[in-house]
Design brief:
Chains: A alpha/beta, B mainly alpha, C mainly alpha
Shape of chain B: flat
Number of strands of chain A: 13
Number of domains of chain A: 2
Helix content of chain B: over 70%
Number of domains of chain B: 1
Helix content of chain A: 40-55%
Distance between the termini of chain B: 41 Å
Radius of gyration of chain A: 21 Å
Oligomer: heterotrimer
CATH topology of chain B: MetI-like fold
Largest sheet of chain B: none
Radius of gyration of chain B: 20 Å
Strand order of the largest sheet of chain A: 10-9-11-8-12
Shape of chain A: globular
Order of helices and strands of chain A: HHEEEEHEHEHEEHEHEHEHEEHHH
Largest sheet of chain A: 5 strands, mixed
Strand content of chain A: 15-25%
Structural class of chain A: alpha/beta
CATH architecture of the largest domain in chain A: 3-Layer(aba) Sandwich
Largest interface: B-C, 36 and 32 residues
Number of helices of chain A: 12
CATH class of chain B: Mainly Alpha
């Protein structure tokens, strides 16, 4: 009996300690102005993906991240800070990107992030810089042809923790079992190992995977609209506006199309003419 | 943190259940496998000793995550499909069994060697002596360290999060990215881990004192 | 199949893996030094029973010891910024490792000191040494000797556990392996083999050192 009381006491103390810690932890976002800070340091720190072909992928040769989003981020940095502006890149995953932004480790997220009402409660988005749609990647010859084929008991869909597509698939194929891996490299590996029938995420990402893995195809067309935006912390209105202006400028000058063509021009299944701005 | 429990209580409990389930299964099998290799190490047969040594050294010196990923990713390519929970439980079993083998071996060694000789002199075979004389005594020595291994198992089972094993940590990751309350979610997850591990570790300390 | 192995072990891929191994070793060495110092101090604080302080330290150590390391990594990486620190994934891992491993080591140190015969302390005190002198000159050296195997195996765990930090994108050997086989999934098997070999060589070498030390000190 004495032991039980002591145990309850310990647990109560523990819970009390944790609640105190939690309430300290919930500090408001930094009230600094990201734009002024960036201008001072002449650097913008971007969170980018490093496991996503075409958008942001680690190049093993020189240990640098390369892709459409990296090039867009560089172009935007030059527009905002002038031609000497430095773009710094921090590798993020769908799971780590919002905490890192909220913590101020990064100034903006340009990492295949769809603008959704849910996320707009946490972060602010710029205008869309790429219009994706959710699709499926399957093994060639798979009986899965579209998202309806997945909506059966016994089918398994693979996705990535923290991505928008895992929420959507719950609506379009509620009967399928959903496995969430920690990044796209893991998810693709799991698909190849037969851990799931299909991998679902945005078509742009899937095209990149299909290009590299000849045994796999993108099927069923897109069943959602996924406009990608750059996420900044709430309240950083000046920074967001300057990014929007910069985006409009590179769209007008043709730099956007040049970058789009560089990465997506030769991707089978991707319609460059439709996507250019 | 309270609101995480309110909104996602069922998900967290499911995770907690899976964490416990996989820890118990892994403990059961790693006890069997671990004791087997411990006995191999103490047999007079050289080949068995070498096999046991290799098994223990290899799996003690490779990260659990690598072993688990191996079962999740490589085995399906070569043999048959296994899901994340199974891959994680197998990985945990193999990893823990190498540590348990070491623990049980030192338990066997701490039983006086005269006892083995006496049993053999009384006409018992090596295996009989092991089964009836040595192991029962050895297990008394190793109960506290085995309890610590179980606590490690519960903590290490978080590796299931890497292979979508639906354990507590996996649920935590999913909830954290849905609710976007990262720290609060992980606090809730931490409390649930402590509910299992804290009483166990206090009980083990108590047991150690009693047996010492 | 054989071709996959030959292609996978290209100079470029191996160099990339070795760069990751370098990060693994760097993180491990800093964490080992840090947690050894802090762990020893905490262990002694727990042993000598300073009023309140030892109890509080003991409780915090128990809390940390009973949580999964992965959770500690998350707390450090996502939590530290709310008090104004913004560690990179490398430093976040190092801090998390030091927090977790020094709690584990403190427990080893405490039980190691306790295992030294109490009579020795009394003998030393009877011979005119102060408590601190006896602890420092008589008890600790013996306790340290007994602790070596446990401490080294804890360090081996530390090296292996750095692999968990791939989840916060630590560019270690595990992460780099995943990047390589993520780009060409034919490399999965060769890459896993190489990864296991690399960890094994590092950890096994350390356990050989421990065995050598044990023999020399015995």
């Amino acid at each position: 009996m004495k032991k039980i009381i002591r145990y309850i006491g310990v647990m109560a103390a523990l819970c009390a300690a944790l609640i105190v810690l939690t309430s300290c932890g919930a500090k408001p976002l930094s009230e600094q102005n990201v734009l002024t800070n960036s201008e001072k340091s002449n650097t913008i720190t971007w969170g980018v993906k490093a496991d996503t072909k075409l958008f942001g992928l680690m190049d093993i040769k020189d240990n640098r991240i390369k892709g459409f989003e990296v090039d867009i981020a560089k172009a935007l940095t030059k527009q905002v800070l002038g031609s000497k502006g430095q773009a710094k890149f921090v590798q993020v995953t769908s799971q780590t990107r919002i905490p890192l932004l909220a913590n101020g480790n990064i100034d903006g997220i340009i990492a295949t992030m769809t603008i959704t009402p849910e996320r707009e409660k946490q972060v602010d988005f710029t205008n869309s810089y790429f219009d994706a749609g959710q699709a499926l990647l399957v093994k060639k010859g798979s009986p899965i042809h579209n998202v309806k084929d997945l909506n059966q008991k016994g089918k398994t869909v693979l996705g990535v923790v923290g991505s928008n597509s895992v929420e959507n698939i719950g609506k379009y194929a509620p009967k399928a079992r959903l496995l969430q891996l920690s990044d796209y490299a893991q998810a693709l590996t799991a698909l190849k190992s037969g851990q799931g029938d299909a991998l679902t995420t945005d078509n742009g990402i899937l095209y990149g995977m299909a290009a590299e893995n000849p045994g796999y195809v993108v099927v069923g067309g897109t069943f959602t609209e996924e406009p990608y935006g750059i996420a900044v912390n709430q309240g950083q209105t000046e920074f967001r506006q300057s990014l929007n202006t910069a985006l409009a400028k590179i769209e007008k000058s043709g730099e956007y199309n040049r970058i789009l063509k560089k990465w997506f021009g030769n991707v089978p299944g991707f319609n460059y003419e439709e996507a250019k701005r | 943190m309270i609101n995480i429990f309110q909104n996602y209580g069922a998900d967290l409990l499911l995770g907690l259940g899976n964490t416990l389930l996989c820890s118990v299964i892994a403990l059961f099998f790693s006890l069997i496998i671990g004791s087997m290799f411990a006995i191999f190490e103490t047999t007079p047969i050289k080949a068995l000793r070498i096999i046991a040594r290799i098994y223990i050294e290899v799996f003690r010196n490779i990260p659990l995550l690598v072993i688990t990923m191996f079962f999740y990713v490589v085995i399906p390519l070569m043999v048959a499909k296994i899901d994340g929970f199974t891959a994680g439980t197998i990985g945990l079993t193999i990893y823990t069994s190498a540590f348990i083998a070491e623990t049980v071996r030192s338990g066997i060694n701490s039983v006086e060697s005269g006892q083995m000789e006496g049993a053999r002199a009384n006409g018992m075979t090596f295996w009989q002596a092991m089964r009836y004389i040595i192991l029962p005594q050895a297990f008394r020595y190793v109960i506290p360290p085995l309890g610590n291994q179980f606590i490690n198992l519960v903590k290490n089972s978080s590796v299931l999060a890497f292979v979508a094993g639906f354990d507590l940590m996996y649920q935590g990751n999913v909830i954290a990215s849905n609710s976007l309350q990262t720290i609060n979610t992980y606090m809730a997850v931490g409390v649930l881990y402590l509910v299992i591990t804290m009483p166990l570790s206090y009980y083990m300390r108590h047991l150690e004192k009693k047996l010492a | 199949m054989l071709n996959d192995f030959i292609n996978a072990y290209s100079l470029m891929n191996l160099r990339y893996l070795l760069a990751g191994l370098g990060i693994t070793i760097f993180v491990s060495i800093i964490s080992i030094i840090g947690s050894y110092i802090i762990g020893a101090i905490l262990g002694i604080i727990r042993y000598v029973k300073i009023k309140y302080l030892s109890a509080v330290v003991g409780f915090v150590i128990d809390l940390i010891r009973n949580l999964p390391l992965l959770l500690i990594i998350f707390f450090i990486y996502f939590g530290l910024p709310s008090i104004g620190l913004k560690p990179s994934s490398i430093w976040a891992t190092i801090i998390a490792m030091i927090v977790f491993e020094s709690a584990m080591l403190a427990e080893i140190v405490r039980s190691g000191i306790q295992a030294v015969d109490w009579g020795q302390m009394e003998g030393a005190r009877a011979n005119g040494l102060t408590y601190t002198q006896a602890l420092w000159h008589i008890i600790l050296p013996q306790a340290m000797k007994k602790m070596i195997p446990a401490i080294v195996s804890q360090f081996i765990s530390l090296i292996k556990d750095t692999s968990l930090a791939t989840i916060i994108v630590l560019p270690d050997v595990m992460h780099n392996t995943q990047i390589v086989y993520g780009q060409n999934t034919n490399y999965i098997i060769p890459m896993f083999l190489m990864l296991a070999i690399m960890y094994f060589v590092v950890c096994y070498a350390l356990s050989l050192v421990s065995r050598y030390l044990e023999k020399r000190m015995a």
